[in-house]
Design a protein that fits this description.
Blueprint (H helix, E strand, L loop, with lengths): L2 H6 L1 H12 L4 H15 L6 E5 L5 H8 L3 E6 L2 H13 L6 E5 L12 E6 L9 H11 E10 L5 H5 L11 H10 L3 E8 L4 H5 L3 H15 L4 H4 L2 E7 L1
Length: 234
C-alpha cells in the first residue's frame, strides 16, 4: 500500500498513537514536542498552522500553550482522532481541524505567524511544491523535520508499509534554495532509528536513549542522526 492510501486508512488512525508513542515511543513523542516548542517559542496568541497534523499531538499541545491554531490533514480518520483529543483536554473551542491538501493550502499569503509540518516530508511525493506552499501562507517561519539518508533509518526503511523518502543534507539545502527559504537553526537526533524504540518497553528503552543522546553529542552525532529538525524563514 502506498503512503497516502496507508495513511488515510481508518485502522491506521485508530492505532497510530498507541503503536508509535507508547512505551519506548514515548521518548520519540517527548523529543518531537520539545523540538516544536523550542523552534516556535512562546505561542500565546500567535496564529499557527500545522500541516499534516495527523491525530493532533502537536495541534492540541499548541492550543494548550495559548496558540490560535489550525490543524490540516488529508485523512478524515486522523482528524477525528484530533478532535476527540482536543475535547478530552478541554481545548476543542480553541483549535480547528480542517481537511485539506498540503499542495494547495486554502489560506491567503502571509496568513500565519508560523507554519510547521512534522512527520510529513518523508511521505511527500512533491516536497518542493509542499514547502513552497508552507512558505506562501507563513509570514516568516516554517519548521519541519526529515528522515536522513546515510543514517540507521536506511536499515529498516524497506520494511515500512508505505514509501519513505530519505534526505541528504544536500537534498535539504536544495529544497530550501528552490523554495527561497533561509536556514536559521537546525537540530539532529536519534542515532538509533524510531522503529527500534517502538519495539521496546519504556524501562528497557530508557538506557538506550541515554546512550543515544550521549552519542549524539559527539562529533559524529549529527552525521549519524536519523532525524533532523529544520527551522527556516523567508
Amino acid at each position: 500500500m502506498k503512503g497516502k492510501e496507508w495513511y488515510q486508512a481508518d485502522d491506521v488512525a485508530e492505532e497510530y498513537d498507541d503503536k508509535r508513542f507508547s512505551e519506548g515511543g514515548a521518548f520519540i513523542d517527548r523529543r518531537e514536542k520539545e523540538a516544536v516548542l523550542s523552534a516556535l517559542g512562546p505561542v500565546d496568541d500567535k496564529r499557527i498552522l500545522e500541516v499534516a497534523c495527523g491525530t493532533g499531538r502537536f495541534t492540541v499541545m499548541m492550543a494548550q500553550q495559548g496558540a490560535d491554531i489550525i490543524g490540516l490533514d488529508i485523512s478524515p480518520a486522523m482528524l477525528a482522532q484530533g478532535r476527540e483529543k482536543a475535547k478530552q483536554v478541554g481545548v476543542d473551542d480553541h483549535v480547528e481541524f480542517m481537511r485539506g491538501d498540503a499542495s494547495r493550502l486554502p489560506f491567503p499569503d502571509d496568513h500565519f505567524d508560523s507554519v510547521f509540518a512534522m512527520r510529513f516530508f518523508h511521505l511527500a511525493d512533491r516536497p518542493v511544491t509542499f514547502l513552497r506552499e508552507l512558505r506562501r501562507v507563513s509570514k516568516g517561519q516554517v519548521f519541519f523535520d526529515t528522515f536522513n539518508l546515510g543514517s540507521t533509518r536506511v536499515i529498516y526503511n524497506w520494511l515500512l508499509p508505505m514509501g519513505s523518502r530519505l534526505y541528504s543534507r544536500r537534498d535539504v539545502e536544495s529544497l530550501l534554495a528552490d523554495s527561497e527559504l533561509k536556514l536559521e537553526t537546525e537540530a539532529h537526533d536519534f542515532v538509533l532509528p524510531y522503529g527500534f524504540y517502538r519495539q521496546l518497553p519504556q524501562q528497557v528503552a530508557r538506557p538506550f536513549r541515554q546512550v543515544d543522546t550521549a552519542l549524539g553529542k559527539t562529533p559524529l552525532g549529527d552525521k549519524l542522526a536519523s532525524v533532523s529538525y529544520w527551522n527556516v524563514t523567508k
